[in-house]
Amino acid sequence: MSEPWFEMPVVTEWQIKTEGRDTTISATYIEKIRVKLREMPSILNTSPDILNAMNQFDVYIAEKERDAMEEAQARSG
Fold first, then answer.
1. CB under 8 Å to 14, separation ≥6 — which residues?
2. What's the longest Cα–Cα distance across the chain?
3. Where are the domains of the chain?
């Protein structure tokens, strides 16, 4: 089985023009670089303990975000 890959455009040369207060930046040369993905993590190969820990961390982050939003609303309201 071959490794998955994709081509990614990368700007390798820029042109910067300044006229008064206005600055224009434009790409003058773009290369396409082939990116290969190796050893992609798979949820199928992940142990239940790790999946459970990932889920618990996601819940923790969601709770912190909710608390921060509630605190911000309480301060502004």
1. 25, 26, 27, 28
2. 61
3. 1-40, 42-77
